[in-house]
Batch of 4 targets.
Target 1
Amino acid sequence: MGVAFASTWSTPTTDVADAPRTQLRVGRLTKAHGLKGAIKLELYTDDPERRFVPGAEFSLQVPESSPWHGKHVTLRELRWYNGHPVGFFEGVDDRTAAESLVKAILWVEHVEQEAPEPDAWYDHQLVGLAVVRDGERIGEVAHVDHLPAQDLLVVRSGGRDIMVPFVSKIVPEVDIEAGTITVTPPAGLFEELPEEPASADPDDEPGPTGTGGTAAE
């Protein structure tokens, strides 16, 4: 049992070119910092001291059109500026190179021999779990999508697929042993909201009625 965390263990997507292996998504490169190749990071791990050490190697999830497609980067140093993590990578020596990596997702490989991080799950552990709201089953997890901003659980419910952000506010509990995921979705995510009644147009309201004649001036 655990609280949902915006990171899942996974087999690689088609954007990560290499042989099949077990990976963990640990961060995203968000913005060039300064002129010497530094890049701001969004972390998807509770253990940056373990993951982001000098010499750590990351595979990249980037579009096929990117010059970085199918490549890896090696961390030289992780620094913190005003509470924000900033990475320096081998071969990324100027702002132009850093900007070419913006939005890239960082994955670490060969994690099948490691102890899992708290509140992180393999995709195959999540797929097929019953999705429960207010104690009632409303669907099941069909697959997991890894997007730059966050992970999405694609839930099959009522004959359609619904994309549920995998964040603790909406997915407060994952219980692998019980085979359930508890959700507290916003209104309208799993059902159509009732239409608001049309407000009356003042111009359409009937005027005063009478037996005839004209209005007095």
Target 2
Amino acid sequence: MTQTISSESSLINLPSWLRSPIGKASEISKVQKIVKQRQIHTICEEGRCPNRGECYSQGTATFLLMGPTCTRSCAFCQVDKGHSPMALDEDEPKKIAEAVNLLQLKYVVLTSVARDDLTDGGASWFVKVMNAIRLINPQTQIEVLTPDFGTGKDALNQQRESVKTIVEAKPACYNHNLETVARLQNSVRRGAKYDRSLRVLAIVKELNSTISTKSGLMLGLGETKAEIINTLEDLRNINCDRLTLGQYMRPSLAHLPVEKYWTPAEFDELGKIAYSLGFSHVRSSPLVRSSYHAGIE
């Protein structure tokens, strides 16, 4: 049975299936220490991911590039916004590579805030970090989770060039999240566009069909089952290979309210539908996030 909630109760009356596991304190401390010592950022902390305890206890983290401040103002996201972004830290690639080495990571996810202030949106910075990681961790696979690179003058050409820059560095997987269905894009993803995001993933496949592409949706923002299925069909129409479906959890009263908690059974059903549409790799569960068990097939 679907559970529908009011915004007033959304912060305190979470269903039992949304209580995330807690990792070992010693392992959590180890990851936090390595990250803080190097003054680097993780989306685990900046985005207050509900799985960070579990992931830290496994010695994994998703690195957030180019500072903790985003140039956009999405209504669902906990990442800092509304301020001028930080200058790029020239030592960040080396710092992240060292952290990957110390944590002995075999699979790394690199994401970033949106940096619309940069000509290429930060695409070349992704590549710098990838190269630094590979220099001292040649066996580590790297997944990227990028912005849409789609604003400014000559946006279409710039988007293509930015995506091309990263594709040529050959990530193990190229991830870009739609986040929600087409109807809700304007209210949820301020500054983003549904078609623009689909185009990111389409360009990847046009440039190198051997690179796996991936996208994800948050459920609970008011979408219908039919809209979700239509979105999955749109992703398959551009040969998107992998999918994550998870429950939206409101970070604070300043963010969009949760309209509905989808049950584990409903997530299971949507996962089966996704596989039937041809996705090769699906994570569909309330606590799933874009990078959750990203390297586990």
Target 3
Amino acid sequence: MGDHGQIRVLVADDEPPVRAGLAMLIDSEDDLVVVGQAGNGFDAVELARTARPDVVVMDVRMPGSDGVYATRHLVSEEFVVDQAFTTAVLMLTTFNDDTAVHDALRAGASGFLLKNTAPSALCDAVRHVAAGHAWLDPVVARRLLAEFASRPDSVLPVPAELARLTLRETEVLILAAHGLPNAEIAAHLVISEATVKTHVSRVLTKLDLRDRSQAVATAYKCGLVHPDDRPPHRAG
């Protein structure tokens, strides 16, 4: 975190006007501060070594070294150990970029956001991934994750492996797959946010998953959630 608890953000986009606009928008928020800008994935990784951002807002498609390249390096164990800090990646995408988004998900991106999203959603997404949560744009999350999970080369768990989960862990997984953050899942199930975090951790451990994004993709692959489903009714 930066001064006064600000979230440090690096912006990577190959189009200077877009990059400048994103940086201006983020900098306008009291709790966010832009600590650098890059025009490609290689520069983003190199700049992150010195700027030490909490979050990199990154275009998935850039000439040469793209967002997938950068994500793979930024979340690698070698980078984290060498730099002694962790960086979350919020990937900017479009409707027709499914392949790149799937690659970015595998690489370890924490969130996916449409490039034409509302300014408030961008800043909220930055805050969520900085706090360690996944951010899945509600407009595209179901389609992207459902397609990712159905790919033949997916190594995600199969339906039979879900039997390892308790009923409550399954409920938490389903709500996470609908894009709900921990606080909303807690309100939905009338339990504490700390309890939700415990359930999410157990889901990842039992299913041998790396992060929340993989858990969400698993929910689609195993049929717990379908692209056109609505979230279950709240308890009470």
Target 4
Amino acid sequence: MSGLLSVADALARILAAIPGPVEAETVAVQSAAGRTLAADLAATRTQPPFPASAMDGYAVRAADIAPVPASLRLIGTSAAGHGFSGTLGPGEAVRIFTGAPVPAGADAILIQENAEADGETVTAREPVAEGRFLRRAGLDFREGDTLLRAGETLDARRLALAASAGHAALPVRRRPRLAVLATGDELVRPGERPEWDQIVASNGLALAALGQEAGAETIDLGIAADDTGALRDAVGRARTAGADLLVTLGGASVGDHDLVQAALGAEGMELGFWRVALRPGKPLMHGRLGPMLVIGLPGNPVSSIVCGLLFVVPALRALLGDPRAGEDRSEPALLGRDMPENDARQDYLRARLETAPDRLPVVHPETRQDSSMLSVLGASEALLIRPPHAPPARAGDPCRIIRLDRRIV
């Protein structure tokens, strides 16, 4: 379609307009969940710091129990946090528990199921190979090893690794400030009673939630009326708040009441592009207002949420320094029904998934795809992607989907 950007080109232009990630700050490891690392993280210690037992049993010399049965003299106990400080000699054993230091002189662990203890003596019923059930020092990592990379999101497993590596505080990117502005005389806030010709604003909440999931701090600019002065005032509040990204909802088209683009232009916005070859979401706007990135989304709820996933989330991840911000998040699937030829716009169709452990998911697009219908989006599990000019397809043909129930980062 003449004058319309492809989805890929639109995303590339948005990401190219971001000069770099936001500043770094240091936070306690206990407060770093969901944050994004600002620098590579190296281990400050070795783990385990000593040879450790992988099982409950007895620390022994493998050669002493090569022929069995073999009786050994118990000379002590090694438990986690209470290691045995002596040295194991020929014909000796130390009672040991999982995670405890292996005493000097021992080279294997005789598990307790294969041993019989009697007072100060333990009898081995099975031989054990040298090194068996013994974790060498540094098995997990060594001091100086790079364990995590800049741009990674600190989830539970990465936080555990960082703490184990000796870090009490972590360098992270500050949360990008996402300002969200809904526009339109027809909107009221959730909880307010709409007049007969009004509706409840819902997509502002959705975009704020997407932003928070992606790692942003959100600024609610409320609802601006279809009035240039009100719109310019809201934009001014976003600038005063130091927003890194302003997302407007509705009013970016060319109707008599679509004033957002004009108001932003009056504030000095440099327009990057307007209109993208996708459905839902063709009237999408991008520009810069000084240091603030601007993305204008359609007002229809489904359109704004789909475009939020496709463009706003990657922009926020780029602001956080995530090197995978622009990566393709789609995955393969199989069509669940026949599909007609597509036109010049890339479709993102709400769909249900049929899954089984031994095959690709089968995607069933909903029959109703009107961009105002949140009930259909709420019941959907994925977006089926139909490229521009895609030929007719049959049930069982390969396709691509974006899962809606998968974490953003």
